[in-house]
Amino acid sequence: MPGMSYVEIGVSDLGRSEEFYGELLGLGAGSDADDTDGHRARWLGGAEHGRVKLVEVGPEGRASGWDRDDLQRGIRHFGLKVRGVDAWIDQLKAAGVEVAAGPFDAFGGVRIAFFFDPDGAYLEFVEGYVQHNELWSAELAQAEVDTYEGWDGTPRFDHVAVTVPDLDEALGYYRDRLDFGVVGQLVRPEDPRGFLITNLRGGHGTLEVFTYAPQTYARESVGGSDRLGIRAVGVGVGDGVEPGTVFGPGDVPLHLRTVSGTTGQGAA
Prior knowledge:
about 15% helix; mainly beta; about 270 residues; 9-stranded mixed β-sheet; about 40% strand; 16 strands
């Protein structure tokens, strides 16, 4: 399927992270994954809903360089859809997980909470479906709801959030080049930062594109096989897009792989 298919997370201890993601978050037992840098790696989650790829870089792994400052470009967090976010957060707290914020009701009609994985990757639980105050595609919004039909409410791949310096550039890349569809926007004109979220749907999840009026700044040394934390997004592309590892707008690392039979051109 074209679009997002997985998120790659560098970890210091594969066994510990498999317990966290596979058992505590309920993503299931892992299967071996190839890693071109020779590190041990595991796939978690069902391929039909988007997966998590854990790559063990060991205790010597370098920190991701991620900063909770909104204006830092790149990957912000990885979001998982749940039902009953408050109960899930209570469960994480009982297991000793550090909760950063929430649960709370967020702009857009969803209830969310943020927490950290064992190596400091920033994760989000989200309950409900975003109600865009600038809806671009009712069809795409409904398609997201439809993907959860029959779902048991356990955590599932939902979205990746990124900060980019220029929205037009991001739309030109993800929408026009990679065939993501624009669902809508969360517009808060009263926010002095010019804060805007534009949600694009592609494959198994949503790409939350954050933009701000002030100038954004780069994260140091993005990428690298020895990095911990959320470090890349896997994306299926059409025949017209060269596969490989690239940096999308905002220095977002992307692993592009060809999905046979698609063009990769002209998304609306």
